[in-house]
C-alpha cells in the first residue's frame, strides 16, 4: 500500500476538510479526493461520512487510524535508522522508569554524552511493564529500572541505588500528621506496595492514588500533604517547601540497567552501565 494514501487519510482526518488537507500536503484538492477514493477501494470500505461542510470518520475510518499511524511511524523510524547507518554515529534506545529522572541521572547522562560524541540516544520515560515488553521484543536496547525483573531472558547490571523518602509540606513533618487525609500515594511498583503495606497497613488512607509523579507533587504543593518521592530530589523539594518527614521509613532498592543479552547494542548498554555506576536517585 502506498504510504502517501495513509498520510493523506490522516491529514483529512485531522483537518476534517479536503481543501485544507490539500494545502497542508501541497497537492490539489482533486489529488486528495483521488487518494482517499483509492484507499477506500483498496480496503473495501468508506472511511469518511460526507455531508455539506462536514466530514467525519466512519466506524471503519476510526479503526484504521491507529494502524495508519503505526505504519507511518515505523517508516519514519526505519528511514532514521538507515540514514544513521550512513554516519559515524551509533544509536541506542534507552528507557528510564517514569518518575526517576532528576538531577542525579541528568548529571550522569550529560557525562555520557560528553564522553561519547558519536552516540545518538533515543531516551523515553516508561512504566516498568512497558519497558520489559520493549526489551523482550528488541524495540528497546536497555532500561534503568529500580526493581530488577528476575527474568532469565534479560540481564541486569547494578549501577546504583534508588531511595524513596516521605516528604511533607509545612505542618506535616511528623509521621502521624503525614499519613492523615492529605496523604498522596504515588505508585512505585510492587516492591514499594509491599513495603508500604508492611509499614503502614491501613493507617495511610490516601486522598489520591496515582502513578503520575508530576500530578502527585502538584497536589501536595497546591493542597498540602505528603508523598513518597526520590531521596535525591531533597534540595529541589526543600526549595518548594517540602521536607523529609521525621521517623518515616525509607524505601531503598538497587538501581539496575537491564538489557537483552542478544541485543546488537549490548556493548553500548554495558558502556552506559559503567558511565552511570554509583548514581544515587
Automatic annotation (TrEMBL):
PROSITE patterns: HTH_LYSR
Protein name: LysR family transcriptional regulator
Molecular function terms from GO: DNA binding; DNA-binding transcription factor activity
Cross-referenced SUPFAM superfamilies: Periplasmic binding protein-like II, Winged helix' DNA-binding domain
Listed Gene3D superfamilies: Periplasmic binding protein-like II, Winged helix-like DNA-binding domain superfamily/Winged helix DNA-binding domain
Source species taxonomy: Bacteria, Pseudomonadati, Pseudomonadota, Gammaproteobacteria, Cellvibrionales
Keyword set includes Hydrolase: no
Top-rank lineage group of the source organism: Bacteria
Natural source organism: Parahaliea maris
Pfam families per UniProt: HTH_1, LysR_substrate
Keywords assigned: DNA-binding, Transcription, Transcription regulation
Family listed: Belongs to the LysR transcriptional regulatory family.
Domain HTH lysR-type: 1-58
PANTHER family listed in its UniProt record: HTH-TYPE TRANSCRIPTIONAL REGULATOR HDFR, TRANSCRIPTIONAL REGULATOR
Amino acid at each position: 500500500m502506498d504510504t502517501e494514501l495513509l498520510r493523506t487519510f490522516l491529514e483529512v482526518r485531522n483537518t476534517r476538510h479536503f481543501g485544507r488537507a490539500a494545502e497542508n500536503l501541497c497537492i490539489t484538492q482533486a489529488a486528495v479526493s483521488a487518494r482517499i477514493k483509492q484507499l477506500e477501494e483498496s480496503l473495501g470500505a468508506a472511511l469518511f461520512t460526507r455531508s455539506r461542510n462536514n466530514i467525519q470518520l466512519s466506524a471503519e475510518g476510526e479503526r484504521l487510524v491507529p494502524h495508519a499511524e503505526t505504519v507511518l511511524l515505523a517508516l519514519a523510524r526505519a528511514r532514521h535508522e538507515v540514514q544513521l547507518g550512513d554516519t559515524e554515529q551509533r544509536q541506542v534506545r534507552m528507557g528510564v522508569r517514569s518518575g526517576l529522572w532528576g538531577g542525579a541521572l541528568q548529571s550522569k547522562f550529560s557525562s555520557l554524552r560528553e564522553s561519547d560524541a558519536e552516540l545518538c540516544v533515543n531516551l523515553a520515560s516508561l512504566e516498568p511493564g512497558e519497558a520489559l515488553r520493549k526489551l523482550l521484543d528488541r524495540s528497546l536496547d536497555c532500561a534503568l529500572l529500580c526493581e530488577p525483573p528476575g527474568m532469565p531472558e534479560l540481564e541486569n547490571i547494578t549501577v546504583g541505588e534508588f531511595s524513596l523518602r516521605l516528604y511533607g509540606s509545612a505542618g506535616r513533618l511528623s509521621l502521624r500528621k503525614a499519613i492523615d487525609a492529605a496523604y498522596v500515594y504515588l505508585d512505585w511498583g510492587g516492591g514499594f506496595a509491599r513495603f508500604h503495606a508492611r509499614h503502614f497497613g491501613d493507617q495511610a488512607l490516601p486522598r489520591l492514588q496515582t502513578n503520575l509523579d508530576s500530578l502527585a507533587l502538584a497536589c501536595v504543593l497546591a493542597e498540602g500533604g505528603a508523598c513518597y518521592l526520590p531521596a535525591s530530589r531533597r534540595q529541589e523539594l526543600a526549595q518548594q517547601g517540602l521536607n523529609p518527614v521525621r521517623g518515616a521509613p525509607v524505601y531503598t532498592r538497587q538501581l539496575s540497567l537491564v538489557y537483552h543479552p542478544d541485543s546488537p547494542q549490548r556493548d553500548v548498554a554495558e558502556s552506559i552501565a559503567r558511565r552511570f555506576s554509583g548514581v544515587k536517585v
